[in-house]
Specification:
Length: about 190
């Protein structure tokens, strides 16, 4: 079982999403033993250049190779664990840069006369979501979880589970409660 573990928080050891994503991966490794092979992609360290016309048109050999590597890594994964902090109501831009490389027509989706069809469906995604405030499930100002879920669904992945700690900047007690609730969800995986 190939696990792709992605982190994007800029907060290092103080990061909530990194703690949750690491705990999810640890739990999966305990559950699946030697079968679980993990690749860690740390987007705060290995920053992916923004997509530009040169990269899109395949005119930059180095970036074409990187794009192919990221795409293949996503296609090969059986499980994807994404640490996704909420930054300014959306995702860290480093995570958006990754999305721009794996959303590729003919590889992860295609358009048909009936509309778009995802091509990378056979995997499970866990989103380790952290937010300073409280938004709940369907907030109109949440461009983080909903956006990420839409992107995975678009590539054909419908099995997306959100493990969320929110209100983490609203005092120590709120943070503790949020972490305990997230940990309980992880243990139930
Ligand atoms: C640049 C930046 C932007 C943020 N924007 C928001 C926001 O729009 N809404 C919110 O509730 N919290 C926001 N926060 C708080 C983070 O979501 C919160 O600290 C969360 O724990 C970040 O995840 P991390 O601990 O994994 O880095 C922001 C934090 C940073 C550093």
């Amino acid at each position: 079982m190939k696990i792709l573990h992605i982190d994007s928080s800029i907060m290092g050891d103080a990061s909530v999403s990194r703690q949750l994503s690491a705990d999810i991966v640890k739990h999966l490794k305990q559950k699946h033993g030697a079968e679980a092979q993990v690749q860690h992609l740390d987007l705060a360290v290995e920053q992916i250049p923004h997509l530009n016309s040169e990269i899109l048109m395949g005119q930059n050999a180095e970036q074409s190779a990187l794009g192919e590597q990221l795409l293949q890594q996503y296609l090969d994964a059986d499980v994807v664990v994404v640490g996704a902090a909420m930054y300014n109501f959306g995702l860290p831009s480093t995570l958006k840069a990754w999305i721009d490389r794996i959303s590729v027509a003919g590889r992860t989706f295609k358009y048909t006369e009936q509309g778009p069809v995802g091509l990378a469906g056979d995997k499970k995604v866990y989103i380790a979501s952290s937010r300073g405030g409280v938004y709940g499930d369907n907030s109109p100002v949440d461009y983080q979880e909903g956006f990420l879920k839409t992107v995975f669904n678009f590539t054909g992945v419908n099995d997306v589970e959100i493990i969320r700690a929110e209100g983490v900047n609203m005092g120590a007690e709120m943070k503790q409660q949020a972490m305990s609730a997230a940990q309980a969800k992880i243990q139930a995986i």
